[in-house]
């Protein structure tokens, strides 16, 4: 028969010594393995190679055997992958197991007993695509070496279409390597679609946001509206309409906001002035115009004609044609500089577009009226009123105040 004192000692030993040897959980880190590298972040994407768990403990040496730890998932149990010391009485137990199809709870076991219940969050395709956002989506049109954002094309010729956007995800962009990102340039008139695949680099996939660009693989001439549609996997992220404005309508909306003069001085520096320059002070002189289109969001190329005129009419020997990309924003257009020696008889320049005169830049100052010897009024000769003359009038009125 067991002595009474021995029975009490056995109870004390079971409750104190054995319970005291049980390790204490200090923390859990969830991560995943992908292409041989381990990333300690969650949720775990479904594209990962394996789930990685790092579980921190405090406990005596006898509780640090790898065989004593296991992770129980619904339907299966995985032994610990490794145990490594963490300093003093701390140590870490790691687990590695295949990625489950969805988030789940797992029981952490020590010697077959449940120490804690852990949540393993898994990012599936539907959840990833729901959190994916596309902002600042812009369609740009390229004309030669100039690229401008547009919601409408003002002329039926161009050199390229581009789509630019900022892509964001709360959980990182790595799953896009599996789902794919693409842009469809769709010609509504012909029904033709021109797909472009957007490839992200390793640095972009490792971040939660990236600036992405797609280029239309073909250069068809648009005759009707276009649609630019962003796709990720089977989800449509954004769609933009690109309207086509007839050339005549676009050109009728082009307007001159300001008239200036461009001057090339002896040092080779080009600068602009609102007042007509003194010809002897410049090596070369030309008109300068501040232009803008009248169609909101439209961009197009216009071919302008610059014609010099004298008192007898236009000088066919001094004229020039130049193209410029016009948007609904302001742009400075200084198409040509003429030698001063060739402007002896020239009194100004005309800017023409589509056969109509848009603006006149006069080189001659406003003529003044004279009082004759008899006190009579001699009116000034006729001249073409221009923006420069208007600026001069405003300047003189300010000086009178």
- Average pLDDT rating: 84
Multimerization state: single chain
Give the class from helix and strand content and strand pairing: mainly beta
Uncertain runs are: 9-19
What is the rounded Rg?
39 Å
Relative helix content: 10-25%
Shape: elongated
Layout of helices and strands:
Elements (H helix, E strand, L loop, with lengths): L3 H17 L3 E11 L2 E3 L4 E2 L4 E9 L10 E5 L2 E4 L2 E6 L2 E8 L6 E7 L2 E8 L1 E2 L1 H7 L1 E11 L2 E4 L2 E2 L6 E9 L7 H4 L1 E7 L5 E6 L3 H4 L3 E7 L10 E7 L2 E10 L2 H7 L1 E10 L5 E4 L10 E9 L5 E13 L2 E14 L4 E3 L4 E2 L8 E6 L2 E7 L7 E2 L5 E2 L8 H14 L1
What's a quick, concise take on this entry?
The chain has 401 residues and is mostly beta strands.
Describe the model.
- The protein has 401 residues and is mostly beta strands.
- Helix content is 13%, strand content 50%.
- It has helices spanning 4-20, 125-131, 176-179, 202-205, 247-253, 387-400, and strands at 24-34, 37-39, 44-45, 50-58, 69-73, 76-79, 82-87, 90-97, 104-110, 113-120, 122-123, 133-143, 146-149, 152-153, 160-168, 181-187, 193-198, 209-215, 226-232, 235-244, 255-264, 270-273, 284-292, 298-310, 313-326, 331-333, 338-339, 348-353, 356-362, 370-371, 377-378.
- Strands 14, 16, 17, 19, 20, 24, 25, 28 and 29 form a 9-stranded mixed β-sheet that branches. Strands 2-1-4-8-7 form a 5-stranded antiparallel β-sheet, with no helix packed on it.
- A hairpin with a 2-residue loop joins strand 19 (226-232) and strand 20.
- The N and C termini lie far apart (125 Å).
- Mean pLDDT is 84; it is low at 9-19.
């Amino acid at each position: 028969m067991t002595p009474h004192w021995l029975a009490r000692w056995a109870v004390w030993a079971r409750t104190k010594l054995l319970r005291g040897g049980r390790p204490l959980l200090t923390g859990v880190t969830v991560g995943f393995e992908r292409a041989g590298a381990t990333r300690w972040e969650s949720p775990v994407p479904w594209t990962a190679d394996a789930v990685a768990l790092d579980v921190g403990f405090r406990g005596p040496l006898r509780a640090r055997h790898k065989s004593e730890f296991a992770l129980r998932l619904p339907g299966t149990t995985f032994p610990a992958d490794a145990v490594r010391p963490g300093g003093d009485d701390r140590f870490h137990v790691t687990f590695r197991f295949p990625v489950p199809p969805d988030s789940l709870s797992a029981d952490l076991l020590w010697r077959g007993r449940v120490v804690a219940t852990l949540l393993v969050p898994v990012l599936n395709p539907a959840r990833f695509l729901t959190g994916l956002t596309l902002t600042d989506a812009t369609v740009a049109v390229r004309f030669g070496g100039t690229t401008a954002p547009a919601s409408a094309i003002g002329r039926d010729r161009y050199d390229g279409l581009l789509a630019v956007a900022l892509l964001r995800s709360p959980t990182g962009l790595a799953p896009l390597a599996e789902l794919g990102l693409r842009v469809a340039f769709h010609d509504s008139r012909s029904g033709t679609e021109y797909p472009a695949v957007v490839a992200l680099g390793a640095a972009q996939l490792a971040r939660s946001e990236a600036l992405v660009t797609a280029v239309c693989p073909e250069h068809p001439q648009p005759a009707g509206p276009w649609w630019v549609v962003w796709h990720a996997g089977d989800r449509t992220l954004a769609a933009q309409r690109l309207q086509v404005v007839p050339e005549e309508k676009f050109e009728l909306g082009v307007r001159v906001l300001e008239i200036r003069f461009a001057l090339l001085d002896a040092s080779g520096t080009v600068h602009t002035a609102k007042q007509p320059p003194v010809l002897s002070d410049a090596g070369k002189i030309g008109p300068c115009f501040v232009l803008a289109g009248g169609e909101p969001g439209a961009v197009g190329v216009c071919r302008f004609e610059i014609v010099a005129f004298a008192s007898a009419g236009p000088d066919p020997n001094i004229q020039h044609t130049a193209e410029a990309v016009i948007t609904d924003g302001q742009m400075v257009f200084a198409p040509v500089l003429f030698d001063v020696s060739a402007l002896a008889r020239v009194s100004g320049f005309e800017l023409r577009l589509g056969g109509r005169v848009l603006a006149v830049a006069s080189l001659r100052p406003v003529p003044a009226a004279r009082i004759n010897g008899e006190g009579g009024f001699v009116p000034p000769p006729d001249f073409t009123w221009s923006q420069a003359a208007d600026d001069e009038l405003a300047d003189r009125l300010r000086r009178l105040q």
